[in-house]
Amino acid sequence: MANDVVKAILIGAAGRMGQRLLAAIHETPHVLLAGAVERQDHPHIGRDVGEMAGLGTWNVSLAGSLKEVISAGDVIIDFTNAEAALTNLPMVAEKGKSAVIGSTGFSPAQMGEVRTLTQKVPCVLSPNMSVGVNVMFRIIADLAKIFGAEYDVEVIEAHHRMKKDAPSGTAMKMGQILAQSLNRNFDQVGVYERKGIIGERKKAEIGMQTIRAGDIVGEHTVIFGGLGERLEVTHRAHSRDNFARGAVRAACWVAKQKPGLYDMQDVLGLK
Q1: Which helix (H) or strand (E) holds 125?
Q2: What residues are paired with 219 via a beta bridge?
Q3: Buried b (16+ CB within 10 A) or exposed e, 32-56
Q4: Which residues are part of the catalytic machinery?
Q5: Are strands 31-37 and 6-11 parallel, antiparallel or unpaired?
Q6: Residue 76 near residue 101, CB atoms below 8 Å
Q7: From CA 22, how far away is CA 20, in angstroms rounded?
């Protein structure tokens, strides 16, 4: 990387998150947009990306495939979905590039494929690139160990009406972190919503509650409930900009790493 400038290629550049990522790249002096990709039938294919985002002329045209632009970049930033990310990652590995993946919903089998591919290239994969959320991951892990089995644990997440998956990938990650800290199997103790005569709450349960309404960017709360008191830890995202800035930060970091699978805890030095 000449003069430590990171050349980024953005997949999903015309979407809501893509637009915020373009703005974050624009405001980061040592990051250069080398390419931008959307699906082949997108109406903005061929248009200048900077003009599309209202950021002036960048002389980078929106491409219809990663293959067209991958040779120009150092790091591929992918905020599409699990299936699309796994379509792109083999090419990233073949070309020896780095990757930042913000997609969620990977199945165990898909994660196995990701781990195999990232033996060749460095990749940051995280369900949430926000600095604040990743600090919260660390905090709730510590709190769960301190409170132990005597405190009930519930995760509540709220997002906009357009979100397709539930619970969010971030909430699922929180559930997994809490279960690990409490020496539980999340697949066995995770309880999704409640209705009807369900009986007394089981001691080991980790409740996962979902809210979808309006234009909520993202809110996550973990409740530790004991007898006579409760502690709540909440993160509220006011805009998508914090996710975008975190992803650009991850791109700068991963470009200098050895092959392997990393997450934002690695990027932020929280491990």
Answers
A1: strand 122-125
A2: 158, 236
A3: bbbbbbbeeebeebebbbbebbebe
A4: 159, 163
A5: parallel
A6: no
A7: 5
Can you give the pLDDT at residue 3? 58
Q: The whole model's pTM is what?
A: 0.84
Structural domains in the chain? 2-125+240-267 (3.40.50.720), 131-237 (3.30.360.10)
Q: What DSSP string describes 57-101?
A: --S-BEES-GGGTGGG-SEEEE-S-HHHHHHHHHHHHHHT-EEEE
**Beta-ladder partners of 218:** 237
Q: Do the strands 31-37 and 218-226 form a parallel or antiparallel pair, or are they unpaired?
A: unpaired
Structure tokens at 126: 């995280």
Are the C-beta atoms of residues 167 and 130 closer than 8 Å to each other? no
Across the chain, which has 271 residues, the per-10-residue mean pLDDT values are 80 91 93 94 92 91 95 93 91 95 88 94 92 95 97 97 91 96 97 93 96 96 97 94 93 95 93 78
